[in-house]
Amino acid sequence: MAQDPVLLFKKGLSFYICCDICLIWRNIVISKPILFLSKAGKLCVPAMNVNDSVTKQKFDNLYCCRESILDGLKRTTDVMFGGKQVVVCGYGEVGKGCTAALKAMGSIVYVTEIDPICSLQACMDGFRVVKLNEVIRQVDIIITCTGNKNVVTRDQLDRMKNGSIVCNMGHSNTEIDVASLRTPELTWERVRSQVDHVIWPDGKRVILLAEGRLLNLSCSTVPTFVLSITATTQALALIELYNAPEGRYKQDVYLLPKKMDEYVASLHLPTFDAHLTELSDEQAKYLGLNKNGPFKPNYYRYTFPC
Q: PANTHER family, from UniProt (predicted)?
């Protein structure tokens, strides 16, 4: 897809769901090429960006990663989290989930960020925001959650202490510069599935998980309840695009309608025996809302405490 996204979209070979009439996706990996095509005017069909919908980003990214980060690390390394110094690179929804889980287990957690708003959130949540180079020699675990590339470089890997763990929760296999570790002076030792010891000439070992690929997809289970939320969002997005009157959606990228996000959430509330409060006619009129929703404007930013 990265080589010829137009051709792949025309053939219906999208990473998630693509057909002759519409396209939906739920992963940041595919977001960039689709948005690139849209800006260039080369998108062949209407596209629904499920990845940035509330019911995907605020639940799959946060709550799923909050559980799978611990599961993945335990399955692969049997590490004890209490007292460990951990740096989480990125404080988006994935980073928030990871930091919350590790903090609850007694780890000392640092955060790296480029965004001042996310940095301020991390500070207010009780995490120290640092540059990676400031703590690289002392941390026990590095977790990347940025969606970027070369977040952890060879120079930084060279300075990590013996027995450190490096893994990725963010974006494909680009965040850790794994290619730089495949050199003659370094020895790779496979100790178990998805776990490699990279050994330096002085005997130092760095534990690399899943060769830099996504830890939660490679080394842990993913909660089926959260997957249900995401899959429902995808299905409704596809139905909306398929059934929409001609002309409603042009060859462009759209976000899921707020009403649909709320419907996905409502479908999953019975699992918790949750009962929604209903607005009276007077209350609905006072707030300027329809009694059946949507209950928030499109610009509303849902915040989820960790």
A: ADENOSYLHOMOCYSTEINASE, S-ADENOSYLHOMOCYSTEINE HYDROLASE-LIKE PROTEIN 1
Report how far residue 182's alpha carbon sits from residue 180's, in angstroms, rounded to the nearest whole number: 6
Answer whether the bond into residue 33 is a cis peptide, omega within 30°.
no
Cβ atoms within 10 A of the Cβ of 286, count?
A: 10
- Quick one: three-class SS letters along 111-165? EECCCHHHHHHHHHCCCEECCHHHHCCCCCEEEECCCCCCCECHHHHHHCCCCEE
Which CATH topology does 56-218 take?
A: Rossmann fold (3.40.50)
Instruction: For 94-144, write each residue's pLDDT tens digit.
Output: 999 999 999 999 999 999 999 999 999 999 999 999 999 999 999 999 999
Domain ranges across the chain: 56-218
This prediction has a pTM of 0.83
